[in-house]
Batch of 3 targets.
Target 1
Amino acid sequence: MFNKILIANRGEIALRVLRACRELGIQTVAVHSTADSEAMHVKLADESVCIGPPASRDSYLNIHQIVAACEITGADAIHPGYGFLSENAKFADILEAHNIAFIGPKADHIRIMGDKIEAKRTAMRLGIPVVPGSEGGVTDPDDAKRVAAEIGYPVIIKAAAGGGGRGMKVAKNEGELKTAFQTARSEAGAAFGDDAVYIEKYLAKPRHIEVQVVGDGQGNAIHLGERDCSLQRRHQKVWEEANSPALNSDAREKIGAICSEAVAEMGYSGAGTVEFLYENGEFYFIEMNTRLQVEHPVTEAITGIDLVHEQIRVASGSGLSVQQNEIEFQGHAIECRINAENARTFVPSPGTITHFHTPGGLGVRVDSGVYSGYRIPPYYDSLIGKLIVHGRNRVECLMRLRRALDEFVVDGIDTTLPLFRDLVSDKDIADGKYDIHWLEHYLAND
């Protein structure tokens, strides 16, 4: 096991990792920008190092400074959290060269899954069902027209190196294809420095289902069930739950087994998430995230397995703590992402939190790094906390969530709490009848 772990992140995920390290008896190092000097994880870590000014490129993305912080403090491993450098293969390579353990997968696996075209090829080779589409990148408008005609309209053009909805355009017919194709390439080049795109069949009303996997890098892997992340705004997840209201136990076990067997064959090490669109009883692979997900707590709630513990165990060579036949799924869990944003306009709302009170009681968890008097800086993601609620079934979970949302108080800034108070009382949500477009339609008609 490691002696000291440097946490190369900020906010709630940095505090989440710190708590796991404490439980395992591992010393912690917090790195922070000048804007985060009063952050909770900085206050609670055994050591802290300032790595630069507020801009991410000068601090949390500054590989040289982070490696230097490891050398100064003697940290023998780095946990990257999510975002920032968590899926940066170059970072993983540099850490290996400096004999610092990266608590994540091998750099080669990050590269493969970071390239959406290569990821799809790999998924097909491993027997994971994929969305019909181009076999590789498409650079010529005539080729785009041919591919679209073969798979049938509507189609979606996606950035090969992309994510978060950037470089992604839909064409409902041939007349829309040329503009959508050119726009997607332009956006992809501007956002990722790579204008390669690929084309897939556009599914009209799919759900977004993701399967949590963990591999030990030695050919063994487990799955921890699925999460339903269909409630999204501009391709950004808002509300996640486990298990999905759309799946039965047979479908759950089948797709879980496919994913765990695939990552075992890859020799994958650490936590990962295989993401799908799900429509009419069929799964279609879209990507694999080679890191811990924001929504991992709902999986922890229904399995009782600490995913950060598993990441640390695997990276240290201790292997997995459980086998597949030992995993039991209990009840239902829902996570709401609480952002410092206006609940209607979604305009960011940095500023000072004058009062912060979190809900409690059976089955209620809040992951947050903020506190009363804390100033939300304007430089980073607007996520300030996650409310996770667990119940014996989905009905009880929704009842508990409604109560917890009523107890949650954040004064001084705007938050998305009012949105969730509305959603938890909506009939479609109660019935589990929603897809990836549902929330945007709901917001447009509000």
Target 2
Amino acid sequence: MASRNYKYYQPNDKDLKDNYGDCVIRALTKVMDKSWMQVFDDLIPYAKRHQCMPNGKQCYESYLKENGFTYHGISNKKGAKRPTVDRFAKEHKNGTFFLNVANHCVAVVDGYYYDTWDSGSCCLYGYLEKE
């Protein structure tokens, strides 16, 4: 059963079956309030600068930081469990966040997480917060 904090979100109108590996761009469209194509085009100069793919961590972190986001790491103390996407969304009822989880990225806006699947059980490794 999907969490009440999860909302299906697919801004890529060409990905009719949710098969494209474009979670970075999807999440960025939500936190930047831009179209899929606008975000993709925005990332190209960053990808060239860092010589990486547009969905590379260096690329999207630079893009977000230059657009008013601040990075927050999640410490993994011995014996402690990392917070999940669902828990993070429930604890952050206000604000705009770009979350890094294992091999995936998710947008959280005002207590809801947006994705093409319910990624609520994924463990959080860090996030960028819109100032």
Target 3
Amino acid sequence: MTTTTNLPSAAELHTVKRAYDVQRIRRDFPILARDVRGKKLVYLDNAATSQKPQIVLDAIARYYEQENANIHRGVHFLSELATSKHDHARQIVQKFINAPHAHEIVFVRGATEAINLVAQTYGRKHVSSCDEVLVTAMEHHSNIVPWQILCDEKNAKLRVAPINELGELIMAEFEKLIGPRTKIIAIPHVSNALGTVNPVAKIVELAHTRNIPVVVDGAQAAPHTKIDVQSLGCDFYAFSSHKMFGPMGMGVLYGKTELLEAMPPYQGGGDMISSVTFEKTIYNKLPFKFEAGTPDVAGAIGLGVAIEYLNAIGMDNIAAYEHELLAYATEKVSAISGVRLIGTARDKAGVLSFVMDNVHPHDIGTILDQEGIAIRTGHHCAQPVMQCFGIPATARASLALYNTKDEVDALAAGIKKVQEVFS
């Protein structure tokens, strides 16, 4: 089989200078140049989904225009090329999160499916009546509902670790909830509603002293900081392509080899089998055992190119720039009278959730939209978080590598416009 990958060259990746050049980066994202309602687009809804650089769009188009074929079985040129590119994308993901082996990278539709896969395979096998699954009060619904389904089926109990008024996990209470019946711990690396960065390595260490596996929802961490699953020590790590500048409908589950090998398949069908008779089916090796059916080849290629793009900029550079931008945004927005930030953890990623006196978050979002500013309003698929703070919803501005201080200034001006409308 050919080993040609036809991935973009280093020159195509628009490698930035050592000094972080946000304007150079912005030019890589065609959608950022458009107008919305007669105003320049200010896109601050990156926690919901990120925009895509031209290089990712080109890679997806090139696949469908010049390389489209099904993979792994064909002996013709296009099938071999598509297979090679798909397999290479898996290797790119492996290196990006520092997984020991490429076969520990399972391609799924997103973080949601990754967590469901673990719940319905590892969870079903290891959780029994009266056992416990431990989560936190800051979870996205995708890291609550799969465990609720499992607990309902197994007559097990879902335990919830509390958070404080800053939106931080109360570690002393978390540790108290780890008991002899705890079979799985599931946590977010970064809260989508609050921006809180959790001490994952510390939690994993606590769990592993009791031989409890840890599932990490990394959907909000992967676009913003360097991920090293070996350093974290986690047993499973899930993230989505569309939040890290890749295509929608694509995601990753990392799992330790020994755990994946012992887990039953998630779905049955093509490519997850080695042989089939009516008497017995022999399952394929990792990771294909968990990848039934025709995969999203273009999605995998697009994710691989998105990761190469991030690598070209440098995850440390991205994290430093976003940290500075978040500090600026926090100062700007919190200085506005009548605005209260929700989630003020000492260790935060680029999420700014807030409420305003006498103004519903949906009204905030509607008025900002008239100014060309895109934010998210509502409970952000994290209703228990809202309940913790005694509010129905927040307005959420979420930052990415291409946002600027000028856009933060536009957000602050837009919030003041909201106040004028409701005064």
